[in-house]
């Protein structure tokens, strides 16, 4: 199937899911209220833009660099922007680029610095009109070296470890149509 046809098909499928392409990304704690963290706009040919909200994040300077973190006492969950090229394109079957826009690190709130081995990767899948994700543990030191040319997704299934609900501040996420909040 040529790229144009695939793009039109993806746009048709995703626009039905996203009600004009506007979606809301919400992190779900094990207990407590869902936390809206980002707005997602799906555009033509499956291209998307994700914009993180300022609130509820708090700025923290950890390990000599700035992070935007969510308080989940006694822990913080901090967004880790993917430092390499990302096409920011999704299809009905492939949400991988979006997974790389949802990278986080977790730390104890009272600890100094941040450990990149304590990463969170949300494995995404579709459930009807919603995208859902389960947090997986991953050593983000994988990202210390630039991936080989053409390898835009260096984190593989073998790098991920399933987590229980109590092992991470936000074990799940949901991406829903903006009106559905």
What does this structure look like?
Helix content is 12%, strand content 38%. It has one domain. Strands 1, 2, 3, 4, 5, 6, 7, 8, 9, 10 and 11 form an 11-stranded antiparallel beta sheet that branches. With 181 residues, it is mainly β. The protein has helices spanning 3-18, 96-100, and strands spanning 22-28, 35-42, 48-52, 58-62, 65-72, 75-79, 104-108, 119-127, 130-138, 161-162, 172-177. Keywords: Signal. Residues 1-20 form the signal peptide.
Which properties best describe this structure?
181 residues; mainly beta; globular
Uncertain runs: 1-20
Helix content: 10-25%
**What is the number of helices?**
2
Question: What's the quaternary structure here?
Answer: single chain
| Strand element count | 11
**Radius of gyration computed on alpha carbons:** 16 Å
Average pLDDT reading: 87
Shape: globular
What class do helices, strands and sheet pairing give? mainly beta
| Helix/strand order | HEEEEEEHEEEEE
Domain module tally? 1
Characterize the main sheet. 11 strands, antiparallel
Proportion of residues in β-strands? 35-45%
Cα distance spanning the termini: 35 Å
């Amino acid at each position: 199937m040529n790229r144009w046809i695939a793009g039109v098909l993806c746009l048709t499928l995703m626009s039905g899911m996203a009600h004009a392409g506007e979606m809301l990304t919400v992190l779900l704690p094990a207990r407590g209220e869902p936390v809206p963290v980002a707005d997602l706009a799906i555009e033509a040919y499956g291209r998307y833009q994700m914009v993180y909200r300022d609130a509820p994040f708090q700025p923290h300077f950890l390990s000599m660099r700035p992070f935007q973190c969510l308080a989940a006492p006694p822990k913080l969950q901090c967004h880790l922007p993917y430092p390499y090229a990302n096409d920011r394109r999704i299809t009905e079957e492939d949400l991988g680029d979006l997974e790389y826009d949802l990278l986080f690190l977790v730390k104890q709130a009272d600890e100094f610095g941040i450990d990149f081995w304590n990463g969170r990767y949300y494995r995404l899948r579709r459930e009807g009109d919603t995208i859902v994700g389960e947090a997986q543990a991953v050593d983000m030191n994988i990202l210390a070296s630039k991936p080989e040319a053409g390898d835009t997704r260096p984190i593989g299934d073998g790098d991920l470890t399933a987590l229980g609900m109590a092992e991470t501040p936000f074990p799940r996420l949901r991406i829903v149509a903006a009106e559905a909040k």
